[in-house]
Amino acid sequence: MSDIVTWVVAHLSEIVNIVFAVYAVAALIVKLTPTPKDDAILAGVYKALTVVAGLLQKKPAAK
Fold this sequence. Notes:
single chain
């Protein structure tokens, strides 16, 4: 388990870049298609990404 955590920490910037590149491609596809179903799915993915980004940016409170 610690090997996985070590690998994720070492490659965090690459993982984040890949996730946001996939999101950008998905957003482009959503803009090209007229169906509202994919708009709702992408909105949910965006909300999840903002929650994760907020968790990653939180700093522990100083005592």
